[in-house]
């Protein structure tokens, strides 16, 4: 039975909620006024009817009311609903439901619920309806059903139920309503999902965002800064979209960029005359004093003309200008020291970083001609960066005119192009004491007296009226000084003890007073010669006798010397004080040869083979058999055919020199052949020998004409440099030191005789079969003609640069002290087994490096004591170098205590300055930063980086101007950095040869 009841919905109660802004509607049955055309099955179940809502708007509804029939199963399915981005779908149902109790005769069949289903599909599936494909969402019951009475009041209770489905995965779905025997009117079906709508929060825009699939899920969304805004550092803007479509939990923010400020949800440019220097600032500020801008959106203001901003000034501070000149400059002179004092400038330029700098100029008496004072002048506390208003300037020249300018500077002085403002004074210095007496030479050392001479000090600062020589016994406990005065630059100190070391110092005296003492000079008096003299101290009779005998001997020698001197132009040799005589001083060089060399009979000489080439001819080996003596091996130097008279003289000169020497470490001359060969000998000896030699070389027949030969002891192992290279690494340190000791002993002998070698080098040392080293290569022209190492220098003459002391290179000052320098190089050659000194550096680079104070590093495995001795030999001041006598003593001590020769580890790369102090090894640094740290100048790291000095190689090329251009204004720092750069440069030269351009 059909029960029809009014479902004219003209007047039911509906709260009529306004549509929620967070919802996106997928289906709203009320919004459609035409037929819905949902599928209803069976056909007599749900039926679509038209009605009016509470506003009398026509709506389409479905209703069913088969309450009387049992077993109802009426299905109603919506059209396909495309879900879009949604994951969580809301289904809102509005319906009315009839109370079964209010219906008569329906007991057992009437129901008060219906079921809600859905089916997910990717597209529409047609109009058939299969129950088993649907998923049940819920059984829907009415909160409020209505009765006939209600109807009577024309009011029906409208139920609203909302169900949520999801997460959904297909593109769309259907909803289905199953009625099992209720009386329902489905007034509206609304399907929607929720979304967080785009908003601007904290100057960031967040886009429309669909909520997550779960009730509790929050979707995190990144915000985008609005224009002219930027993300706050490490705080990017984020928000979270809740399942309810609400934005929650804002994190981070955007802020307006420099030059912009916030207005509402946007950034606006700062107005003219305003600036905002950083995004961190909230507001635009008015331009600070002496600055302006005439455009919008500025991050800073420009300085007015004549005003500046220092690099370190923030944009918020006023622009400033250089200070005015210091005021009230006053001075005080004390001899060669000037003190200046002043008051601060009237105008500090608006800054509080005012310091002062002093510029010193020395002027000729014409005021226009002034030159900078240079580095010899001292400033206390400093020349620039002065915080206090005074400075003392020292070490000025006496009696000189100076101008001092005192300038006040502040942080913007260097930016200003306006004229410098300074206070100035012109001053004439007064008298000063003389500078040091440093060049002292020992002229004559006796048992009880020492004669000294010296050079006038470099700055006498007046007329020197007297010198004072102070001396004391070196080993005396309580140092008692004695003094001697001299009006000239030499003096003899008497009454000294024999064999005693004394220390001497000299100072000069002028009207202005005494100068400072020069460096200490240590000299040991000679040993007492004979026992007679020792005992003579007790016996006056013996003294008289000894003096009388000695006097007679001296007299005899003087007379004899006088006669010979007239003939040979030079001095006499006294027994015990043998002195070398320069053969050049002989009028007739032939006489010199025969004075010092034995004429040999050529028949005693047997030439065996050619062993080398000398400057004047071949060098052969052979044997010498003198009558009544054993035959000995000899080297025979020959003079080549066609010689000139000068060549003959020069050739024999070596013999004249060598013949004067008699020492186990100096090559021994057997004699010379100058007078030709007798006929017998020709047949017996020379001819067969020559046939053996080289038949094609007809020159050898010159021997038959007027042969000239020098016969020398034979040195089996030839020259030392080649010998060491051949036996690289094969000797013990003791053996090497033994060789060095021999060479030093030979040189001590030569220097004691007053002979200066000038070409001491390993190539000029010969080695015999017992490893005994002997000094060789004598002769006056040999340095110039014979030595392939010798090159012409600017001072004229050829010099073997690598072996020669700087003073000999610079002004040809060849002395035993310059031989000591060369000896140091020989030590280095020996300890490095014949390595070339200064490797492949050019001669010019060697001279420069030496001048800059750098010395060869210790060869590999060289004991430090030996390297120290080398460094001592390479003292710039030749008076400071050890004497050969001392060198022999030191080496003897080392040989006696082999422990002192223990090899250190890794000395090769440790570099020593001329003073022997180890210095920073630049190979140990990887970066400019590390280097600056090591010299405690790391504060300038940024200055170096900003100027592009990124490698130590680039730093090594810097000049003082480059250093100053980095903005390093403190003179002390400039000097410290520059001196380290010079060291670095020299080390690089040592390590890489000519790798750095200097
Ligand atoms: P000199 O002209 O003195 O430089 O001699 C040329 C070369 O001859 C030297 O380099 C040595 O190899 C060799 N020589 C010179 N003198 C001797 C010697 N006394 N014993 C052995 N070889 C010598």
UniProtKB/TrEMBL annotation:
It is a single-pass type I membrane protein. Residues 23-201 form the Eph LBD domain. The chain crosses the membrane at residues 541-564. Residues 322-432, 433-528 form the Fibronectin type-III domain. Residues 1-18 form the signal peptide. InterPro entries: Eph_TM, Ephrin_rcpt_lig-bd_dom, Ephrin_rcpt_TKs, FN3_dom, FN3_sf, Galactose-bd-like_sf, Growth_fac_rcpt_cys_sf, Ig-like_fold. GO terms for cellular component: dendrite; plasma membrane. ATP binds at residues 611-619, 637. It is an enzyme of class 2 (transferase). Pfam families: EphA2_TM, Ephrin_CRD, Ephrin_lbd, Ephrin_rec_like, fn3, PK_Tyr_Ser-Thr, SAM_1. It catalyses: L-tyrosyl-[protein] + ATP = O-phospho-L-tyrosyl-[protein] + ADP + H(+). It is found in: Cell membrane. The active site is at residue 759. One of its GO terms (biological process) is axon guidance. Residues 923-987 form the SAM domain. Keywords: Apoptosis, ATP-binding, Cell membrane, Developmental protein, Disulfide bond, Glycoprotein, Kinase, Membrane, Neurogenesis, Nucleotide-binding, Phosphoprotein, Receptor, Repeat, Signal, Transferase, Transmembrane, Transmembrane helix, Tyrosine-protein kinase. The keyword Transmembrane helix applies. Disulfide bonds join 65-183, 100-110. This is Ephrin type-A receptor 7. It comes from Mastacembelus armatus (zig-zag eel). The lineage of its organism: Eukaryota, Metazoa, Chordata, Craniata, Vertebrata.
